[in-house]
Predict the structure.
Amino acid sequence: MTMDLERFEHLAGAYGADLRRWPEAEREAARLLLAADPRAGLVLGEADVLDALLDAAPRPAPSHVLRERIIADAAGARLGRTRRLWGPIAWASGAGWAAAACAGVAFGMVLTSQMTAEIRADTVLYQASLTATDDAEILAAGLGG
Amino acid sequence: MAKTADPDEDLVKRVGAGDPAAVQAMVARKLPRMLSLAQRMLGDAAEAEDVAQEAMLRAWKQAPRWTPGQARFDTWLHRVALNLCYDRLRRRREIATDVMPDQIDDGPTPDRGLLAAETGAQVEAALSRLPPRQREAIVLCHYQELGNIEAAALMEISVEALESLLSRGRRALRTALADIAPQGVVKVAGR
């Protein structure tokens, strides 16, 4: 497949300078033209200026509070059989529940309604650092669920 | 329809089964993308958070009954978030007496010596002044890095129509940002 400069300009005008964003079927022809025709390089250079400007736009990052709200939504969304049995306890405990229970503090932490959003965020981060285990299953099995 | 390979298939299944670790993994994987999509479509951080949260809530509701093979989960989630964005954009138009302009302001920018953060803000502002469909095309293809076929399908248009929206959008942005382009960016070569 070959590509002429007009098609190359059209695609650069639409998709920008990064060939990975171009239609897959036309990338190889574009590379060949790029190697053969120096005008194609100039076209990409112009497109690259706008790409770099677009990349300068700030990239929003989710806050811990937003993450917490969304995980709380999941707890209320009736996901899976064990969730229905254990509700918020299983969700709030996650992978760290068993370990924290050994220290005698987890149950209170999970049940208290006074737990602040910041502490919950820290708990989530802590849980994420542990090996993933479905404690809901363990709890359900242990209590005959 | 041909079966679509979906990198999220296993994760969605685990979420649907109520696996807390999968829920956290899904949040880590999808929330930044949904927030970015909404922020760039709406240009408002608080509204973007609301849209991202609502889209994820719908993901939780959908996961238990998700049928693999019809569409990618990521594409479906993009569609949900885009619909939520358009609902909000429509509401804005109904409330505002002056309708959002269809053409962006291509006048000269006042300050040529912009700092990087200011450059970013200018780009964001120029993006927000694009007609919504042009903005959507650029957000999907450039920022969300969807393939052209996937983006066109999501927008329910042909690939040719997508390319037309992209070209017009990029042309308008180039004109709007012409004054800051030479100073505001360092050209990246060799991609």
